[in-house]
Amino acid sequence: MDIQLTSLHWVYVAFIAFILALLVRRRDTTLICVAGIFTLGLIATESLNGSVSGIFNSFIYATKELIGTIFIISIIVAMSRVLIITGVNETMVKPLTGFLRTPALAFWGIGIIMMVTSLFFWPSPGVALIGAVLLPVAMRVGLPALGAAMAMNLFGHGIALSGDYIIQGAPKLTADAAGLPVSRVMEASIPLVIVMGLVTTIVAFWMMRRDMKNGKWRDGLVGGTGTLSAGGSGATIALPHGTKRALAIIIPILFAIDVVAMFALDLQGGDATALIGGTAVLILISVTMLAHRNKGLEETTSYLIEGFQFGFRVFGPVIPIAAFFYLGDSAFKDLFGDHLLQGSHGIVNDLGVALANHVPMNGTVASVTLTATGAITGLDGSGFSGISLVGSIASMFSTAIGTGAATLTALGQVAAIWVGGGTLIPWALIPAAAICGVSPFELARRNLKPVLIGLAVTTIVAIFLV
């Protein structure tokens, strides 16, 4: 089937190219995305009023699509905050410290604990939840602070965040942009996340041990260990030891029950997120009332405000970018009417069909391109701001080659999150670097080769899966 491309298609492609160019130069793309929305609206409606209104309406559309993700992350952060200042988090992980008896056990132990924690709490709050407790233990058995930062960073911001199987923020963004169910993208990402995680962490550990043995290791310390906490405050609230122990047992059990319920009731996407979010709200309220007693009503609101401030600070830059990329699919018709040619299935799908008709495309070219695109979109240090673009491009390429939509989408997601989510970009590494008291630039330097090797191997695996 031959698709006739219009000025709308070419303008969309031009803005994507412009956005990629800015990302390479590490410049912000929000203004360009807004300009893209305005231009597409002006061409489609031939009305200044319609195009200007379309900017705001596209923000509303994107916010409606993302609101569940924003809320779950905000609530998780709010809950994490009260667990930190009451010391419940310390009690939760303290029994695990007995297993960290050697540098190797400390590296892998901290990493695995961080990965599991990050699946439920997200990596940045996860760092605060476990870092302050496990770092002194790791250093006592001979693991350098920088090694502990690498473990927390690669397992949390890398493995856990790139899959995001519990909170499902990342796969929601990429799946929506690619026009796929979230479950398909999550299933396709499993082998890629496993390969990327194994290769990267094994290479990082081997290089760390090699450099320590050869005397080439640099600790990268910047003046002792940090004191990261969810709200930047060192305040603590004393709870009876028995109460903390009880909460430290009950909270993991509640989340474990949620996971069992997800499988038993076949809950996915928004339903699974709602279950985790509701559980987190109940935990937040219960712990706050126990800790603050008469002030519990007011403090519950304060924690929620802190959480929502964090959530919108993280996703504020994402909304206008996602708004532009949603126009590549169904959002265009909803916002600007049916101005595409008859037989069109959306700007992105039209481009994919045209690409298939005019460019020799195969799984190898598509996989390499998606990895490169994902890595480029991660250069802004967010990891999330560009994965809508990854989903759109994956949709185009899969249409062109006739297969592999979910695998290509997952590959781009993995590349974007590993690069921008907090393993390579120094300003995204600050949570792990701060709590370990090391330079984020030294941490980025240590992560560089392992992550690049991991991306190369993962791309090769994806080529065979497409």
From TrEMBL:
Domain of life according to the entry: Bacteria
Stretches that traverse the bilayer: 6-24, 66-88, 100-121, 127-143, 188-208, 220-240, 246-265, 272-290, 310-327, 389-409, 415-436, 448-465
Protein keywords: Membrane, Transmembrane, Transmembrane helix
Keyword Magnesium: no
Keyword Cell division: no
The protein's name: Transporter
Species of the source: Cohnella lupini
